[in-house]
Specification:
- This protein is mostly beta strands.
- The longest helix is centred in the N-terminal third of the chain and has 9 residues.
- The protein binds MU-OXO-diiron and calcium ion (CA) (3 copies).
- One calcium ion binds next to strand 9.
- Pfam families: PhoX.
- InterPro entries: PhoX (IPR008557), TAT_signal (IPR006311).
Length: 657
């Protein structure tokens, strides 16, 4: 092959920077959080609202609780924090049960097509297309029957974010060919599975009329302003309206009308261009081959020198109807094109849909979409079109604790031909460039966003880390990203004006700086009480207002370097305002904890274990797949497998209580 081994595999996450813009760095007041953090210590959102004098009048607070939780807000956590762990297992507090199901390679449950997993990874591409994909990530619950809150029977829709060519084949990437690329393509995308709680616990229903795999080759429709744009047209799709597939599906969202949102994150790693990169390709970090999956070698769609517009058809949010297995997924261009982490959906005071989204790369931005039309509980067909038209905004965090949502509208604020934008559709394909032009705030890798189910204007976002913050030639620390060389990350909170998600302004604060609870070094000091953690990524509220945080410490750093002694990746819980953090779960070796879904009664929790066994270089030697982990099978001839894990309380109680 002539390449060093490392170059033929996919690294876990691109660590580079694609944002050369010179957006204003606000004052470099690295310690400003210390005066702000107290606001979040005041207690519930009412306290926080009162403490934000800039925008929130007391009578406006709680104006909009558009999607009230069915469960009362919890006031305390009911479990004892567990210790850190380096064991090759999933650990949970006493009184809880955790069991893997739906592992990579398990049959999805499609009638008449349920091939068994082969321990040596010799399943074909065709078989992989009807089995669980690799590297499970974001996930959501949908009750059955539709429109009922059934806690014991439903659908799980989940992402399979990326692949590991060293683990996916008996011989890794040797003897590379189209069949191998197709197997990789079929190991990515989305699964929809039917799950049911029976006398012996939760099981995947097989076969199921709902079971579905969506892959890198599943046809999907483009919607919104970028549909039919010149930059979206290819030889295979001269109208620019139908795309094959979705990939690098990271986190997710789900809508009040019962659909799943899957988000395309590190898609730019897969497209390879050997020739000179234009400004758009540079801004989105199109690969020059070293980080490639090698699909470009056998499938021209991923060879940008040959199919220059194909990358423009990725980087979007895709809506899937899990209740209809023959429905065509839709890529909603109105929500912008970037490296989408997740898509947290809530409703504005007037019923418009609001979607919060992070762009996960160093120095990228936080976005918000507001639909033009309003949610109608009686008209699902109309709701299905809500994400097709609306306005995209990007966040600016001022260092006085205020913030603005800056609209990205063609023809406004200089977003016109002078800046290289031809139309609204063209602007959305170039979302990052438009956000640069209006002066958005460069963040420390925005990951998941979570909306408080008891107060829909109160929103949280994980900023996982950014080792380049403050480096020469890079953005300096600012109030919202206060630490140079931010190795541990932090969690941001903002409160929309009037507690309305559709507001144009907000007040913000930092919920917690992650890191070492015992450290005296302000760059390393974690501000939590209780369980310390770093690199927060997955973030979700449960139905009783407990905030769950899942960590993604890089495989090269787990329990090493700055993270020495912090153990495997983990999940911790807190109730915002208490500063009490408790460790609920620790994962097996080499994994990330991600994906989170609660049943409507909060008595079952599903999470995902992603990439168990991933080594320090983010690659697996095909000759030694069990070098780091052999979870969950522990079969001497097997290999580690990403898996959904179902968690219940032995006494049937509410999770976290
Ligand atoms: Fe796929 Fe940003 O994590
Ligand atoms: Ca993530
Ligand atoms: Ca991450
Ligand atoms: Ca990961």
């Amino acid at each position: 092959m002539g390449k060093p081994l490392k170059s033929v595999f996919k690294k876990e996450h691109r660590d580079d920077v694609s944002n050369p813009s010179t957006n204003p760095a606000f004052s470099s007041v690295a310690e400003i959080f210390l005066s702000r953090r107290r606001l979040l210590q005041l207690g519930a959102v009412a306290g926080a609202a009162a403490a934000f004098p800039l925008l929130i009048k007391p009578e406006q607070a709680f104006a909009a609780v558009a999607t009230p939780s069915p469960l009362a807000k919890a006031v305390s956590l009911g479990f004892t924090s567990i210790a850190v762990s380096t064991e090759d297992s999933v650990r949970v507090p006493e009184g809880y049960l955790a069991r893997p199901f739906y592992r990579w390679g398990d049959a999805t449950g499609i009638q008449g097509n349920m091939p068994a997993f082969k321990l040596d990874a010799s399943n074909t591409a065709e078989e992989q297309a009807v089995q669980a994909g690799m590297h499970h990530d974001g996930m959501a619950w949908f009750s059955l029957p539709q429109n009922q809150d059934n806690p014991t029977h439903g659908l799980l829709a989940m992402n399979h974010e990326y692949i590991d060519n060293g683990m996916l084949f008996p011989d890794g990437a040797a003897n590379w060919n189209l069949e191998k690329a197709r197997k990789g393509q079929n190991a990515m995308g989305v699964s929809v599975i039917e799950v049911k709680k029976g006398d012996s616990g939760w099981e995947v229903v097989r076969p199921s009329g709902y079971a579905r795999r969506i892959t890198v080759n599943t046809p999907m429709q483009l919607t919104g302003p970028a549909r039919h744009q010149p930059l979206m047209k290819t030889a295979a799709d001269p109208q620019g309206e139908q795309v094959l597939g979705t990939m690098q599906n990271c986190a997710n969202g789900h809508t009040p009308w019962g659909t799943y949102l899957t988000c395309e994150e590190n898609w730019s790693d897969i497209f390879v261009k050997k020739g000179e990169h234009n400004a758009l390709e540079k801004r989105y970090g199109i690969s020059d081959s070293d980080e490639s999956y090698r699909w470009n070698e056998v499938d021209d769609r991923f060879n940008v020198d040959k199919t220059p517009n194909e990358p423009n058809r990725f980087g979007w949010v895709v809506e899937i109807d899990p209740y209809n297995p023959t429905s065509t997924p839709r890529k909603h261009t109105a929500l912008g094109r970037f490296k989408h982490e997740g898509a947290a959906v809530t409703l504005a005071a007037d019923g418009r849909a609001v979607v919060y989204m992070g762009d996960d790369q160093k120095f990228e931005y936080i976005y918000k979409f507001i639909s033009e039309n309003k949610y109608d509980p009686a008209n699902r067909d109309a709701n299905m079109r809500l994400l097709e038209t609306g306005t995209l905004y990007v966040a600016r965090f001022n260092d006085d604790g205020s913030g603005e949502w800056l609209p990205l509208i063609y023809g406004q604020n200089g977003l016109d031909a002078h800046k290289g934008f031809e139309s609204q559709g063209d602007l959305l394909i170039k979302t990052r460039l438009a956000a640069d032009a209006v002066g958005a705030t460069k963040m420390d890798r925005p990951e998941w966003i979570a909306v408080d189910p008891h107060s829909s204007g109160s929103v949280y976002c994980t900023l996982t880390n950014n080792s380049d913050r403050g480096k020469e030639g890079k953005a300096a620390p600012d109030a919202a990203n206060p630490r140079a060389n931010n190795q541990y990350g932090h969690i941001m909170h903002w409160l929309e004006a009037g507690n309305d998600p559709a507001a144009q302004g907000f007040a913000w604060d930092i919920l917690v700086l992650a890191g070492r609870a015992q450290s005296d070094d302000p760059r390393a000091k974690g501000t939590m009480k209780g369980a310390e953690f770093g690199s927060p990524d997955g973030l979700s509220f449960d139905h009783q207002g407990v905030l769950w945080i899942q960590t993604d410490v890089s495989s090269s750093t787990i329990n090493k370097k700055a993270y020495e002694g912090m153990g495997n990746n983990q999940m911790v819980a807190t109730i915002p305002g208490t500063n009490d953090y408790r460790r609920f779960l620790t994962g097996p070796r080499g994994c990330e904890i991600t994906g989170i879904a609660f049943t409507p009664d909060n008595r079952t929790l599903f999470i995902n274990i992603q990439h168990p066994g991933e080594g320090g270089d983010d690659i697996t030697d095909p000759a030694n797949p069990r070098a780091v982990s052999n979870w969950p099978d522990a079969n001497p001839n097997g290999r580690p497998r990403a898996s959904t894990v179902v968690i219940t309380k032995a006494d049937g109680g509410i999770i976290g209580s």
